[in-house]
Amino acid sequence: MKDFDAVVFDMDGVIFDSEKCVLECWEVVAQRHSFSDIEEVFLACTGTNDKKTKEIVLEAFGQDFPYDEYAKESSVLFHEKYDNGNLPLKPGIFHILDFLKAENKKIALASSTRKEIVTQELRDAGLLHYFDKLVCGDMISKSKPDPEIYLKACKEIGVSPERAYAIEDSYNGIRAAHAGKLKPIMVPDLLPADDEMKSLAEAVIDNLDLVIDYLKD
Question: What is the CA radius of gyration of the chain?
Fold first, then answer.
């Protein structure tokens, strides 16, 4: 068994298969309003909070781009389709959470999403009780790749960052966890691990069930 005290999870793309769902909603909005290249811009936003996402989108499409209007439209589409427990889960999430609980490891969440949404989605999926602490995008001042969210999560659960693994799918998330001196594990979602990710992550692992095997080794 690896020597560690805690695991800090990202949420979107790690716990929920939600990145694809969000992208689908943005693609509908893009088609309605006749703008393109949304996938490339969306991928650049993965792992960041609302404020940083807006900055990236406006830089890509221009300062007069009606981001707030389109983001609200996309959000309505997303919640209509995926609320009330309909958000698809990543395979193995219950397995790894049960494993960590059985081993008496601390479990925290470090998600760039707002706490109200995080709490509701975890509750709807029957996952909320697994987490000792939630640290969310509206509880911090700096977005990933800044390590603030990971450092706060470790502080909240009383664990040294060096004694914690972070499970992430996004480039910005891996950068944040590495900068915070946690042990990053990348489980790729929409983007594969590039050379930078392979150098920053302690391991790149295909799915959460294989992460259990890695932690057991």
Answer: 17
